[in-house]
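I am still getting used to backbone structure tokens and would like to learn alongside you. Label the sequence line and the structure token line clearly, so we can match residues to local backbone shapes. Go ahead whenever you are ready, and we will take it from there:
>
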Amino acid sequence: MTDLDHLFERIAAGEIPSYRVFEDEHVFAFLDINPLSRGHTLVIPRRRCERLEDLPGEVAAALGRALPRIAAAVIGATGAPAYNVLQNNGRAAGQAIPHVHFHIIPKYPDGSGLPHHWPARTLDRDGAPELARTIAERLT
């Protein structure tokens, strides 16, 4: 474990100063100290879970309720015309802190915010039915 493993827990507990924007029993939100744009906000569960699939249902539900409210507040406060919500799982996906966190990143006409290049591919229609079936089976 490193100091980063418990960074967000320590921020939510008030051990490390932050610019808090929201908190309740399960969720804590604060301004990112390395923002991509003005208003870049992090939304975390108070309880450390490394990946999205590790969240208990009640915590996931609390995040689901809080995210739209916080996003609306960020956009209302900043006047940004658009925003991205980003959440990474695993180091290979860009997760630097091993604690579930959502980025609300305002996007401005000057281009500040999350850079986006989406290298889309064509769906493998031959393999898609089996892949969809396999994913669906894992949901039961």
Notes: The chain is about 30% helix and 20% strand.
